[in-house]
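Researcher: Following up on the earlier apo prediction. This time include the ligand. It's magnesium ion, with the SMILES given after the sequence.
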Amino acid sequence: MAGKVENYWGVWAPVWSALASFVFLLPVINNYIPAGLGQWLNTFAEKLTTYFSPYLHVTISEYGQENFRRSKFYLAVEAYLSHACSRRARKLRADLGKDAKTLQVTVDDHQEVTDSFSGATLWWRPSKTTSARNVISWYPGEDERRYYSLIFHRRYRDLVLDQYLPYVLAEGRAVTVRNRQRRLFTNNASGGGGGGYGRGKGVWSHVPFEHPATFDTLAMDPDEKEAIIDDLTAFRESKEYYAKVGKAWKRGYLLYGPPGTGKSTMIAAIANFLDYDVYDLELTAVKSNTDLRKLYIETTGKSIIVIEDIDCSIDLTGKRNKTDDKKKSSNVGKDDDDKVKLPGETDKDETSKVTLSGLLNFIDGLWSACGGERIIIFTTNHKEKLDPALIRRGRMDVHIEMSYCRFEAFKVLAKNYLGVKEHQLFGEIQSLLEETDMSPADVAENLMPMSKRKKRDPNACLVDLIDALNKAKEEAAEAKAREETEAKAAKEKEEAEARMMTKQGKVISQSHC
Ligand SMILES: Nc1ncnc2c1ncn2[C@@H]1O[C@H](COP(=O)(O)OP(=O)(O)OP(=O)(O)O)[C@@H](O)[C@H]1O
Ligand SMILES: [Mg+2]
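Model: Understood. Below is the ligand-bound prediction.
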C-alpha cells in the first residue's frame, strides 16, 4: 500500500497557517478575555476549522470504554502500521514483544506516515495526550493516552469507512497472528504455569510452544505425508465451505500406532504447519463432563486440542466390568457431579467422572457457541480398544496409522540426522527394514552421532543401525519361535485334556449301563 508522499496541507496552506496560528494563540488569548468570550472563541475556532477543512479525522484511542483493556482496533492499527508503513517513517519505537523475544518496531509518536488505498492518500499520525492531574493513576493508560489520527480527504469518506478501515483491521490482525508466540496449554495444574484448574482463574495454564518438529523432519511415507498436508491445507481454507454445509469448522484426526512411531511428533508438526496453539487435554485431570465443557469453551480458534493415549486416559470403551456396571451406567449421559453440594461438602471421589457421552458431546461441540477453526487429535497405541462411536467419521474424520520405520521414512531420518542422501549401506538397511519392525524413535536413536567416533563418521552410525536391526531381527525370530512352541504346547495340552474328558465320559456312561 505504498503511497506517493504528498502534503495534505496542499494549496490551502496559507488558510491553514492563519487558522493554525489562531488556534495556537487561543489559550494565550483566553487568559486575557472573559471566560464566556473565551468559550465562544473556542467553539468558533472549532467550527471554522471544520467548515473550511476538506479533510476528515478519525481517532483510534488506545484504551476504549474499559480502561483495563487496550482497544483491539488500536492494536490492529499499530500492527498494520508497523508492518505496512514503518519503513516510510523516520522515527521508530522499538520494544520487545509480549514474549520478550521478538523485536517489535512501531511508528513513534507524532511521526506522520502516509498510506494509499484505491487511489486515496491517507495520513496516519500516532499521538498522545498526558493527563494534567497530579494524581498517580492505578490504571494503565490513565496518565498517558495514546491514539492514532487518520486524516483523509472527505471525498474518500465512504471508501475509508467501508473498505479501508476494515482492511486495516484484517491486515493488522493477520500481522499479529503471524508475529505471535504460539502457546502450549494444559489443564493439568500440577504441571505448573499460570491459573490452576478450577481455582477461579483460567482453566488452562500455558507455556510457549517451541517444538521444532515440522513435516520436513517427520519420517513417514512421502505419499501419506503429502495427503495429510493436502488435507490440512484444504481444512484451513474451507471456512466458507463449512459455513455453507452447516458444519462447525473443525476436523478430527486419530493417530494410532506402536510407541515411538511419531504420533506426538506429528501433532507438533501439524501445529507448526498450521501455526495453531496446542491444548494438551489431560482427561484424567478432568473431574466431570461439566468441567470438560468449560475447558472446551475456553479454547480459542486456530487451535489443536489433543488427547494423548485416549485408551489409557479413561474407560471409554463402553464396556464396563460387572461390579461397576450399575454404578457407572447411571453416569452415562448425566453430570451427576453437577448436583449442588452442601456447604463444606467436598468431593470424596477425586477420580475423573468424564463419561463416553460427555466426551462425544465434547467432540461434537454441540453446546459450543465459539467459532474459529479447531482440530481435535486423539492418539492411541490400541485403536481396536476404542469405542466405534468415538472414532467414527465425522468425529475422527481422518485415521492416520503411524507405522514402524520403513525405507522411505529411514531416508528422511538419514538426511536429517546425518545429512546423508545416498550411501552404499542403504541397500542392506532397506532389506533389513522390510523384514524388521523397528520404530522411527529407535532408528533415530541409532543415527544420533552422540560419540566422538560417530560424529566424525556417519558410516559408523549406519553400521550401528545395521547391528541394531540384525539384533532386533534375531530377537523377533526368537520371540516368534518361542510363541510357536508355546502355542504348540498349549494345543497339545488342550488335545490331551479333550482326550481325557472323552475317556472319562465313556467310563461314566459304561458304569451307568
Ligand atoms: N516418524 C518420526 N519422524 C521423526 N522422528 C520420529 C518419528 N517417530 C519418532 N521419532 C523420534 O522419536 C521420539 C519419540 O517419538 P514420539 O513421541 O512422537 O512417538 P509416539 O508415537 O508419540 O510414542 P508414544 O506412543 O509412546 O507416545 C521423537 O522425539 C522423535 O525424535
Ligand atoms: Mg506420544
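Model: The radius of gyration is 34 Å.
Researcher: Noted. I'll compare it with the apo version next.
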